[in-house]
Design a protein that fits this description.
Two copies of one chain form a homodimer.
Chain A (H helix, E strand, L loop, with lengths): L5 E6 L20 H14 L4 E4 L13 H9 L6 E7 L5 H14 L4 E6 L4 H4 L10 H19 L27 E2 L4 E2 L14 E4 L4 H10 L2 E4 L4 H17 L8 E10 L3 H13 L3 H11 L25 H14 L3 H8 L6 E5 L1 H13 L5 E5 L5 H16 L12 H5 L2
């Protein structure tokens, strides 16, 4: 069989467009679990590899559900689709994170993935007793040791440690249970974990760092990387660079899958797609546009600047948005954009690969990226829910299937199997 | 309608009897979520108020699932039954606990309960960078402030904060969102929480402390207390004492429900019940019995003492098992029990109210406790699963329903409604 794409759906409460919640079709009051359940079941019918939930340990935008509880409820509502959730290494304990993901992995029969992030904003810090967020280098050093502890704990139990033998002293073979005894700069964790392995062995590790430090961490530890790449050329550079770093770690380049985000507005005709996008763009509240842009350039308050004037000179941000800040500043200068034009440019895909068009147009672009060394697949970002996801699942996925680029049925039952890891 | 019992099912991987996993009917290898799902659905068909999961952040006994992920998966598999899980205040952050329980509460449409505990054993401490467990007084001071932060965060959103209005700047009314700004001895947490209220307003707070400090904390903060009481007289003392402390706090005594644990082995005849109990007792491995007894008297190693000799003089334990240690020492001395006889005595109910008999016998005892000021209901502890739970649900519950002591259908949809809170 020829190489196939991995495709995830990056789920957000109302969709990824900053005005998604104002779209006539979004449902503001229903139980968000029940709303997500229908969408994730649709993604499963389309044989997607996984759904993916971001996270913030503070209120940013609309309130939503916490990923581990939500994904566990979704696990009970689906059979095959992978379930990737975000948990920060900055304000959690590794025993707790290892355990909750192992538990999700076991109860879902091997479909869990952990998106390892560091926390870089002040609102999050303030919920955990800190005056300001942790410095970049310190966050990454902690993240690396955190990953070491979590994966060490996931190795507590050999796959055959549980025995169907009621004559002994314990319901498992103690020789197949391993104590971690970790002592490092940030953590001392004895172990073992009190959750056994799932059918996929251990949760899949996902990351999205794009700084130098972030890429090195990903090359050393990640199995999937989710990334924001606006153009084919930049995506190819990133792909080549990260796969090289993976090889430098002595790992096979295929052991890490690179999935750029894809913000796609899909119509049955180009005019219908354009009209759908224009409808969302027209719903942008200037304050919301400014707030989004301000967050993405390093939590800079733009409210004092004229909307139709240029982006001011910005101090270089010290937080995790540095590469995003550079990207947007270059974009504004290169195309001479006003503040309003710049936030309109990012209101949908936030700097991710963006396509507006028919299924053929979207599939052509995806195929080009996939075949020209820019991507192993994509993390689809729906403009507004549920319509934007339905369009992608019912129009683009069948087109990719016709081209032999995407599965028409799940071959296995675990996330690791879907991803070919 | 006359006063009715609240009844929960305290679920454990294989059952509460120390030899439960060795029972011929227990399932050692299946996915534990799927095993629990069948049992919890049966409890829901019998209209129980809730299922209850204990927790340990270390391996103690058989490995199992983590409560919040498990309960979320069970929420998606049931419609009405309450879902109570344990989370320690000793090794967690209040923002995280508040958020995960709020999320479970929202996705389950108002069925969550948080069993607030402190962690008192060295194995748990060693998974969180500590040489030994935190001292009793310090644990309780932290627990009280932790509760204050969690419930404060649960009040972040007014019930009507979400609005179905797409014309504004935000999908909620910012005047109905409250920032906590907590600064105390243990925590500084700004808030607000990023999860909105469920239909029951906020999760139910459950506790099980029995020390003086534990009772004071419960009187100030708990809505349900789960307690180990071996006899009617002791249960009456505890009930009277705790309800008095609740009144001293200016709370209505009905605002706290007291549910003693009930370990019941049920048969269609007394002989059948006796035989079922004897079958389990015969399966006790001496090492497992000794280990259980050692844990319950304050983590004291009894392996050097003759099984058929007396319990040695014990140093008074400094950890959370002090009241259990006193109870067991008094029992051994009062009845002149050997070590083996003592562990056999606790191998099932671990010091909880224990009844072996027909549905009539069990219901008579429950009715007596309920009507004579010892209990507002019970937390049923199944000897071995699934049989022990099935017996209780299909034999005892109908008997209680015939007596008008327990509902025959859910009147409401939330845990708070089931409990009459």
């Amino acid at each position: 069989m020829s190489r196939q794409m991995s495709i995830g759906a990056f789920m957000m409460r109302h969709g990824h467009h900053v005005a998604a919640w104002r779209h006539p079709d979004t449902d503001l009051l229903s139980n968000p679990f029940k709303v997500f359940r229908e969408q994730v079941r649709a993604a499963e019918r389309a044989c997607l590899d996984a759904v993916f939930f971001a996270d913030s340990v503070a209120l940013t935008g609309a309130p939503s559900l916490e990923p581990l509880t939500l994904l566990s409820a979704l696990a009970a509502s689906t059979e095959k689709i992978g379930l990737i959730g975000t948990a920060t290494t900055t304000y959690n304990e590794p025993y707790t994170v290892a355990r909750q993901f192992a538990s999700l992995d076991l109860l879902s029969d091997g479909r869990a993935g952990w998106n390892l992030v560091t926390s870089d904003n002040a609102a999050e810090a303030a919920n955990f007793g800190r005056e300001q967020h942790v410095a970049h280098a310190d966050r990454y050093a902690r993240a690396r040791e955190f990953h070491q502890v979590v994966t060490g704990l996931w190795n507590s139990w050999d796959p055959d440690a549980l025995v169907d033998d009621k004559s002994g002293e314990l319901p498992y073979d103690p020789a197949k249970l391993h104590t971690l005894n970790h002592r490092g700069d940030y953590f001392a964790v004895k172990g073992p974990l009190n959750v056994v392995r799932s059918p996929q062995g251990r949760p899949v590790v996902v990351q999205a760092g794009s700084s130098e430090t972030g890429r090195d961490l990903a090359a050393a530890t990640a199995e999937v990387v989710f990334t924001a790449q606006p153009t084919l050329a930049k995506a190819q550079d990133f792909y080549r660079d990260l796969k090289r770093r993976v090889a430098d770690q002595g790992r096979s380049p295929e052991s890490l899958k690179i999935l750029p985000g894809l913000f796609a507005v899909v119509g049955r005709t180009q005019a219908e797609a354009d009209e759908k996008f224009a409808q969302l763009q027209a719903l942008i509240e200037p304050k919301a546009g400014l707030a989004l842009l301000g967050r993405m350039i390093g939590n800079f308050d733009l409210s004092g600047y004229p909307l139709d004037g240029p982006l001011p000179e910005l101090p270089e941000t010290q937080d995790g948005q540095r590469s995003r800040q550079q990207l947007l500043t270059a974009l504004a200068q290169g195309e001479n954009l006003t503040i309003r034009q710049l936030y309109e440019r990012i209101a949908g895909g936030r700097g991710h690969f963006t396509v507006v068009g028919t299924a053929q147009v979207v599939a052509d672009q995806m195929q080009q990226w996939f075949e020209q060394g820019a991507a192993d697949g994509f993390n689809f970002m729906s403009p507004a829910l549920p319509g934007g996801l339905d369009d992608f699942l019912t129009l683009v996925i069948p087109e990719l299937q016709r081209r032999g680029l995407f599965r028409t049925a799940y071959a296995g039952s675990t996330l690791r199997s879907h991803l070919g890891l």
